[in-house]
Design goal:
By secondary structure, the protein is an alpha/beta fold. It has helices at 2-12, 38-56, 68-80, 93-99, 138-142, 150-162, 188-195, 217-224, 241-246, 253-266, 285-298, 325-348, and strands at residues 28-33, 62-67, 86-87, 120-124, 126-127, 146-147, 167-171, 203-206, 228-233, 271-278, 302-307, 354-363, 366-370, 382-385, 395-403, 408-413. The chain has a six-stranded parallel beta sheet, covered by helices on one side. A five-stranded mixed β-barrel has the order 12-13-14-16-15. A three-stranded parallel beta sheet has the order 1-2-3. The structure holds iron/sulfur cluster. Iron/sulfur cluster (SF4) is lined by residues 129, 131, 133, 136, 138-139, 173-174, 210.
Length: 414
């Protein structure tokens, strides 16, 4: 989203902008980096080095780096990669514009040049996080929780809808904390109700609800509003009590089980997505067994797994990171194998159902879309066989005829 806001500002200054362009004749390349775990850092550095090589060979005039990695390691990186022309942190709009001798245009608040397909967009409702999860470097880079004013979010949602966005994907480091800093009370429910009234928006999806102090009243809003996808991404990170304690997650297994029961009891059709971390210091194979037994019992709809990344200045950094990367990868693979079976069984149960699907793209002569139970990039897809042309962003009904580990396939229903 930072890139999209900056792109809109640059375009308004008559600077031509392209997102992830494959062309080779750009004057300036701006790299927005991520720096919260090893893999993301390595990927960001590789991209910087690639662009620096292009600069050396005269294909690019200037290379600018922004984002979390730059905010976290600016001095070290500047010393290591002096070919980069300028380094900026997160939300660097004014600074980058000034550096490019362009103006920040206040009237463009809420404007973004979308890098996603035009029918869906991520909508950030707050930045930063007040939690102290031991493994997490995000608060170091993004600071304390800062809710965006509701009017600003609604204005942005209206502008996105006017451009053709039909699905809003709400994101925040802690979605359920929304409003506590700014309005002195949790306001996610109110925000959701207002967003459902934005003309043109048909789906609203919720990502990153923190399990501790989960505001149960949100469930009634999700249940009663047809435009809010029956979908919740609630990262749990682990289930074993000693690991949850060491992670400073402020939850325990009994609380998590009760919460999941309550969510499913209130909204039986809800799709629950979660993420886990394996290889945290002190995790034993028995802790992983416990996690897998919990997954088999709970049967999440969607699961993502990360391997623990030992990040300096986090609370966990003083703990010995003795589990090898190879062992971490093995544990992650076991956990994903467990989920693959669950996912396949859940998909099999969908055969014969007629599901509402949003069309995302055409690919290899077929159409590909998602149900309300699936977020782009991370979740399942539906392969659609249709005798007629379908457009991205179109909602269709699909009769499911085939199930795979993570995807479904079916025929268009007229
Ligand atoms: S809630 Fe999320 S962003 Fe906040 S510290 Fe924990 S893992 Fe990091």
């Amino acid at each position: 989203m930072d890139s999209e806001v900056l792109s809109a500002q640059l375009q308004a200054n008559d600077i031509a902008v392209a997102h992830e362009s494959r062309r080779s004749d750009h004057e300036v390349v701006i790299i927005n980096t991520c720096g919260f775990i090893d893999k993301a850092k390595a990927e960001s550095i590789q991209t910087i080095l690639q662009q620096v090589e292009r600069k050396k060979s005269g294909k690019v005039r200037q290379v600018i780096v922004t984002g979390c990695l730059s905010a976290r390691y600016q001095n070290e990186l500047a010393a290591e990669i002096p070919e980069v022309d300028a380094w900026f942190g997160t939300e660097p709009y004014r600074e980058v514009l000034q550096w490019l001798q362009a103006d920040y245009k206040q009237e463009l608040v809420g404007e973004r040049l979308l890098s996603t397909p035009r029918h869906y967009a991520y909508l950030k409702i707050s930045e930063g996080c007040n939690r102290t999860c031991a493994f997490c470097a995000i608060p170091l880079m993004r600071g304390k929780h800062q809710s965006r004013p509701m009017d600003e979010i609604l204005l942005e949602a209206r502008k996105l809808a006017e451009k053709g966005v039909k699905e809003l994907i709400l994101i925040a480091q802690e979605l359920t904390y929304y409003g506590l800093d700014l309005y002195k009370k949790r306001m996610l429910g109110t925000l959701l109700e207002k967003l459902t009234k934005v003309p043109g928006i048909e789906w609203i999806r919720l990502h990153y609800a923190y399990p501790a102090q989960f505001p149960l009243d949100i469930l009634d809003v999700v249940k009663s509003q047809p435009k809010i996808c029956k979908y919740l991404d609630i990262p749990l990170q682990h289930i074993s009590d000693p690991i949850l304690l060491a992670m400073h997650r402020q939850t325990n297994r009994a609380y998590i089980e009760q919460l999941i029961h309550k969510i499913r009891e209130t909204i039986p059709e809800i799709c629950l997505r979660t993420t886990f971390i394996v290889g945290f210091p002190g995790e034993t194979p028995q802790h992983v067994d416990e996690l897998m037994a919990f997954m088999e019992k709970t049967r999440f709809d969607r699961v993502g797994v990360f391997t623990y990344s030992h990040e300096e200045h986090t609370r966990a950094f003083h703990l010995p990171d003795t589990i090898s990367q190879e062992e971490k990868e093995k544990r992650a693979e076991r956990v994903m194998d467990c989920q693959r079976e669950i996912s396949y069984e859940k998909n099999l149960a969908r055969i014969g159902q007629v599901l509402k699907v949003i069309v995302d793209r055409r690919e290899a002569g077929r159409f590909v879309g998602r149900t309300e139970y699936d977020s782009p990039e991370v979740d399942n897809e539906v392969i659609i066989h249709s005798p007629k042309n379908l457009s991205p962003g179109q909602f269709v009904k699909v009769h499911i005829t085939q199930a795979y580990d993570y995807d479904l396939e079916g025929r268009l229903v007229d």
